DNA sequence: GCGTAGATTTCGGAT
DNA sequence: ATCCGAAGTCTACGC
């Protein structure tokens, strides 16, 4: 990894065109050839960048660049897509290289897959007298997150699990319900939209379509699952 | 901006929990308090991070940490959400600070707004004898990108413009069409799904619903708009 | 390898 | 301030 602090301007041509006027920025040139251009603010997203696989070539400035005070140009190109990033460097304040080695990577807990797993283990959260048929129940238009069977009679419950529930999730569940209700072995199929947080518009649309909304408490569900009841 | 290359482990607690085992990484501490943890690969997204507003506090390691070889801890917290990032530093290979100043920011060209503007100026691309009613035509469920009027008789055309057209865009347009067709002053309203690239599944769904798909060539439309015909 | 769904999405505009 | 949609989204997973 090479770290450069430089006064530079940047031009990107690819899926769109973008330009960064002359300013002092951090250039991170990673081992895989990728380049990040960061300012001293904003969030984790760089101002501009090139994703791997790509390659960086150092160029001499042309006459126009020389008049502008450019001392060096970096051209970073993605061979396949034709995307190109051109960095015109006017001054280098810092330039160091470091060997970082391979990273073991991130371990996550609490994403949608975890919510789905916990809810599958605790179907009583959805309602009484329900039994899990299966997770990721396959249909022609994609898998239904959870399918439950009514113990007391005919009928099935299809659940769409989201971390954040918005209108798209309701649309998705609606498509599943329409399809599943054509199956006489499953019908009548009712829908439950389960999420840690449900947007108002999504709630309105779901209710309008007879879909029940269920807000999930991940920490509580995780506590139950771990076998550590709150009484102790 | 402070740049640190360090052997460290990282734990994040917030919207989810995440852990990074001990390895050598780049730590970027920006002027706004935010912290990025980068490896020497991957893409522009850091392995872990904390977004502003947040603040970094240096802590002394506890006894367990000392046994593990931790020389220093950084705790980065987001006061409002309670998100917290804890970096356990075992060794610092590099540590420099730099004054970058404020960045003038990125100038973009070729995003959805540009497509929409160009199509509004070139409605003949959609079909003959059509006139623009307005861009961002307001409805109760959100604005329709473009609304056109049929010059030869009754009827309206509603257009959804996307850079990349996938199934969500078709759903969105379908909702608009359903609503607009209830208005006797507009009905019958037909739909056009216009995008630089239309995914096969989206095309199938649109066609099934009687929505016409239109692939847009941004460069060509830009050329026409600039008044520089290709003959010269 | 392609395509789709999720993301600690981030970012910008409009209400 | 909040909500909502776009993004050069990136990334993991299923086919």
Automatic annotation (TrEMBL), chains A, B:
UniProt keyword annotations, A-Z: Cytoplasm, DNA-binding, Endonuclease, Hydrolase, Nuclease
Location, primary (coarse class): cytoplasm
Compartments (UniProt record): Cytoplasm
Domain Endonuclease NucS N-terminal PH-like: 2-104
KW Heme (keyword) present: no
Enzyme Commission code(s) on record: 3.1.-.-
All copies of domain Endonuclease NucS C-terminal, residue ranges: 111-231
GO molecular function, one term: endonuclease activity
Task performed by this protein: Cleaves both 3' and 5' ssDNA extremities of branched DNA structures.
Family, similarity comment: Belongs to the NucS endonuclease family.
Name this polypeptide is given: Endonuclease NucS
Lineage: Bacteria, Bacillati, Actinomycetota, Actinomycetes, Micrococcales
């Amino acid at each position: 990894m090479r770290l450069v602090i430089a006064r530079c301007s940047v031009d990107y041509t690819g899926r769109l065109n973008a330009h960064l006027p002359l300013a002092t920025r951090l250039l991170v040139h990673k081992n895989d050839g990728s380049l990040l251009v960061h300012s001293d603010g904003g969030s984790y997203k760089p101002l501009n960048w090139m994703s791997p696989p790509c390659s960086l070539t150092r160029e001499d400035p042309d006459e126009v660049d020389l008049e502008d005070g450019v001392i060096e140009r970096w051209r970073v190109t993605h061979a396949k897509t034709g995307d190109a990033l051109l960095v015109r460097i006017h001054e280098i304040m810092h330039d160091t290289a470091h060997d970082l080695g391979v990273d073991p990577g991130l371990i996550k807990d609490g994403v949608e897959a975890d919510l789905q797993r916990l809810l599958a283990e605790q179907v009583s959260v959805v309602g009484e007298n329900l039994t899990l048929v299966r997770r990721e129940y396959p249909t022609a238009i994609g898998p239904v997150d959870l399918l439950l069977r009514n113990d007391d009679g005919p009928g099935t419950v299809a659940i769409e699990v989201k971390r954040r529930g918005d209108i798209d999730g309701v649309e998705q569940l609606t498509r599943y319900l329409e399809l599943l209700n054509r199956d006489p072995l499953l019908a009548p199929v009712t829908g439950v939209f389960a999420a840690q947080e449900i947007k108002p518009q999504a709630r309105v649309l779901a209710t309008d379509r007879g879909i029940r909304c269920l807000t999930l408490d991940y920490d509580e569900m995780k506590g139950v699952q771990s076998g550590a009841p709150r009484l102790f």
